[in-house]
Specification:
Blueprint (H helix, E strand, L loop, with lengths): L1 H16 L8 E14 L4 E2 L1 E12 L4 E15 L11 E16 L6 E18 L3 E3 L5 E15 L4 E11 L18 E14 L13 H7 L15 H8 L15 H8 L15 H8 L15 H8 L15 H7 L15 H4 L6 E3 L17 H13 L5 E5 L7 H21 L7 E5 L12 H7 L2 E5 L2
Parallel strand pairs: 12-13
Antiparallel strand pairs: 1-3, 1-10, 2-4, 3-4, 4-5, 5-6, 6-7, 6-8, 8-9, 9-10, 11-14, 12-14
Length: about 475
Amino acid sequence: MKHIFRLLILVAVSAQIGFAQNLDGKWALGFHGGGNMWVNDLNKLKVGPGAELMVRYGLSTRFSLGLATGWELLKASQDPTSAGNPYGYLKDDAIPASLIAWYHFSPGKSFAPYAYLGVGGMMYKRRTTGNIYVPSDKWQSSIHIPFGVGFETFVSKKVSVNVDLGYRLLDDWTDYRKGTSDNNMMDSYATAKVGLNFYFGTSKSDDDDGDRLTNGEEEKLGTDPTKADTDGDGLNDGDEAMKYKTDPLKADSDGDGLKDGEELNTYKTDPMKADTDGDGLSDGDEVMKYKTDPLKADTDGDGLNDGDEVMKYKSDPLKVDTDGGTVNDGTEVARGSDPLNAMDDVPKPKKEELKVEVGKAITLEGVLFLTGSAQIGPNSELILEKAYNTLAQNPEIVVEIQGYTDNTGGKTTNMKLSQARAESVKGWLVAKGIAAERITARGYGPDKPVADNKTKEGRQKNRRIEFFRVK
């Protein structure tokens, strides 16, 4: 009783754990033990022990077919006052064997009730008090028709606890006594058994690898039912087939050089489109070769898409201004200049428009500096390009770059500031390739104003750079 109680506790616990299981396509081997009660023409019922060995195959999720055999000790006794029976006590050593069909009410559940019906035979020997065989020690035979109900609850995917309540119909001779005319019922016995079933094989309804595709679905797709991620792309087969519509047999569904898992989880690109942003470059080339953004058609925002920059114009898709000539690549292409040649970024004026007579000066209007600083402002380079073009196209010209300020502040400070600004302009021209010996720089501070320093507009005009031709 103690062992039975422990087994019932295991049944209750396993029902809570809930290892759902499908039985189709699987073999089950069961070992069950318990008791029986023999119903026959003797009028005193007794409980005897019994054991069963069962082997079964799942034909579908609801039906299975198998064989059961085992051993039963059937016991009964007779009231001594009863007539017609020479023996007061009988027991049969019985070996039943039957073909049985099971119907499973809740396929795929952890708690699985069932009903069964079968047909077979039983071999037995009768004994009476003193272990005397009746009528001899030869084996006797009987029909054996089992039926009943039960349930099993899974403690793992391969093991279930089985509880069975059944009844077995026999012929009317197992008790060595034929029924009377008013009692010609067949002999029989009730049985109750508990045990374990062990499962082998796999079911098409199972999901052995936990990828949310049944083994049957994986068989149709051609994926491996024992591997959640057949192609090793970082996505499980179920997500590929049902969620993302990618190919679970190909790590790179769109052939762009990136695995499907990388596209979805790392780069956020479309694993079904080789070129997510439509810029003419595959996502793989953008990520691994060009280092551009596969989600932005124009990574550097210069007005040209990355594919055109790489394939057509040979410009750098990561630089707005590939040649560093102050004009972005998109503007250069639109106006017809070369984004790879800085020399054509600023349109060159006609040669005769830049010529300055010796001893004359041109004010470079628009050359601005940061407040109180000699640093050239970002919008001044277009004007300085004109000065550069004059010197580059006329190698005979020698100039003095003259810096001026308004009269705000001390003269000493203004003289130093105007000198520093003149030298900044000279430095810019020399850096562009003009020989340093062709240029001198001199600051004149507030001297030689060209407008009234009493007005804001006048002071701004006085803050200037002049291009004075010396030779």
